[in-house]
Specification:
Elements lengths: L1 E12 L2 E12 L3 E5 L6 H8 L7 E6 L2 E2 L4 H7 E4 L11 H11 L4 H14 L15 H13 L5 E5 L7 H18 L2 E5 L3 H7 L2 E6 L2 E6 L1 H8 L5 H9 L11 H13 L2
Parallel strand pairs: 3-8, 3-9, 6-7, 7-8
Antiparallel strand pairs: 1-2, 1-4, 4-5, 9-10
Bound molecules: adenosine-5'-triphosphate and magnesium ion (MG).
The site of magnesium ion has 4 residues, from helix 1.
Organism: Kribbella jejuensis
Keywords: ATP-binding, Nucleotide-binding
Protein name: ABC-2 type transport system ATP-binding protein
Length: about 270
């Protein structure tokens, strides 16, 4: 069974082509990394997959279901951690997760137990009844992961889940993702700018640049093509012609979004 099948997907914002005739396949149970420089089209692709943007041309299927025709069914199979912070600061951690459980129709009788379970997985049990506005950045990210997991998604979509976290917090997010993957046989589709982490975590990665797919394969095979000592960062540079250093994270859009969330969170 194919978890995700993207064929001929294009997405424009006005004249700007953000995703350009993209073909991509993610297998069931795989951890797949979508890599590429800022503005490559990763988030846009994930938003189409996630039914937030209807596909303008081409098609996307999630476990055989079309994102356009079967949007509701697709949404139920998905857990999504967006690039921009999405939690509600005026609610406690537990309330934030409960709200998602309700949204995703987790049966009423199971809700409390399910919420407690995912809070435990992300190690937020002790902080669960504090307002989320008092959480650190790493705790917020783990809370978002708990929200994405509460409906036991077949496909977990993570858009830069570890951005802004210290190395220990990053490891802890990834360890939890791997644990969930093993426990529930979840498929994981993620984006990250940390090449070392993608190398360790992902079964396969795709390199995206200017909305197009430049390369896809296992980290080992892509590195081997570049030479005996090549790193995934070398692969990234080769296919995108850009360096990871000195890049500004996000544009004004992102900054505005983050500020708005920060305000909302007090
Ligand atoms: N809502 C929007 N309106 C106009 N342009 C947009 C919008 N969203 C994205 N874009 C543009 O589409 C392109 C792809 O953006 P996208 O957010 O998909 O990139 P990305 O690969 O996720 O980048 P990053 O690594 O910075 O998150 C960029 O040029 C961006 O400016
Ligand atoms: Mg993005």
């Amino acid at each position: 069974m194919t978890a995700v099948e993207v064929s001929g997907l294009s997405h424009r914002f006005g004249d700007h082509v953000a995703v350009d005739n993209l073909d991509l396949t993610v297998s069931d149970g795989e951890c797949f990394g979508l890599l590429g420089p800022n503005g490559a089209g990763k988030t846009t692709t994930l938003r189409v997959l996630n039914t937030l943007y209807p596909p303008q041309s081409g098609s996307v299927r999630v476990f055989g279901l079309d994102v356009k025709a079967d949007a509701m069914a697709v949404r139920r199979m998905l857990g999504y951690v967006p690039q921009q912070l999405s939690i509600e600061g005026a609610l406690s951690g537990r309330e934030n997760v409960s709200w998602f459980a309700r949204l995703f129709d987790v049966p009423r009788r199971e809700r409390a137990a399910r919420v407690a379970e995912v809070l435990d997985i992300v190690d937020l049990t002790d902080a669960a009844d504090r307002l989320a506005s008092t959480y650190s950045g790493g705790m917020v990210r783990r809370l978002e992961l708990a929200q994405a997991l509460v409906n036991r998604p077949a496909l977990l979509v993570l858009d830069e889940p570890t951005v802004g976290l210290d190395p220990v917090a990053r490891d802890s997010v990834w360890a939890r993702v791997q644990e969930m993957q093993e426990r529930y046989g979840m498929t994981v589709l993620l984006t990250t700018h940390y090449m070392e982490e993608a190398d360790i975590l992902c079964d396969r990665v795709a390199l995206m640049h200017l909305g197009q797919l430049r390369a896809v394969g296992t980290p080992a095979s892509l590195k081997a093509e570049r030479g005996p000592d090549a790193s995934l960062e070398d692969v990234f540079r080769h296919y995108t012609g850009s360096s990871l250093e000195g890049q500004e994270k996000g544009g004004l859009r992102d900054v505005r979004g983050t500020r708005r969330t920060a305000q909302r969170m007090g």
